[in-house]
Amino acid sequence: MGFKPVDVSMKFETIRKAKAEGKIYLSPESVQMIKEGKVPKGDVLSASQMAGMFGAKRTADILPFCHNIMIDHVVVETKLEEYGVYAAAEVKCVGRTGVEMEALTAVSAALLNVYDMLKAFDKNMRIGDIKLVSKSGGKSDYEEDLSGLECAVITLSDSCFEGKAEDKSGKTAIDIIENEFGGKVTHYKVLPDDKDKIVEEFKSLEGKVNVIFTTGGTGFSERDTTPEATKEVIRTEAVGFGEAMRIIGVKFTPKSLLSRATAGILGKDTLIINLPGSTGGVKDNLRMLAPMVKHAIRMARGEKKH
Questions:
Q1: Is 116 a catalytic residue?
Q2: Of the listed 43, 61, 116, 196, which one is catalytic?
């Protein structure tokens, strides 16, 4: 079985922070040597701070599943205590993945440096209590699944409606909604690219489902009327969803700029999101937007996240 890091290419860049701490237990004699500055290799606390900073910056070189991260800020603290040395690290970056491993590596490197500088004098040193104190900016702060939400998937395609082509994009959306995000698809339909029929379908689902995902009909053809049908029924446009699909999508294909996909709130709290008609576009954009859906619905209801 092969190994591979997690693909974070479709994630948003956010401010990521992490704090970690740990200890190294020393003999009273070693503690006294540090206090009096008598360790031959030099200033243990300062050198260990530097080692911790190096450790944070080189984390991806020693841990195979960690991504190379442009670290924006790292601070390592070392403090002499009665039992030995306490080390703490805080790491920050603007990126798509967290920095908890960088913080933990920084602490580990700092404590290992203490060990290295005292190994000739203390044979019973013990490193322990290394732990993550806090982290922010990742999934626990911004992302949620679709559990508890009833979803509709509507494919807009003349060829699929007429049976001339298979609806792969709609089935892909259903699979991701249910198997990756824990949502429940209670309504699925294939419709022709007919604005009036799309509007009628939207209105029939108002208040009956939490989210309506459409696929297809977002291009420039005269028959591509999904955005127009959506704008006709929604009370509030969720501009950011469409912008995000184009901003992120263009990193993979310039054709994403040709999508006119939009999103908005139907009635009190039914969210409509237009997805592209391609299976690749459905996969990428649904995985990017799904973690924001619950919060969007709470906003529509005037609720706050608990």
A1: yes
A2: 116
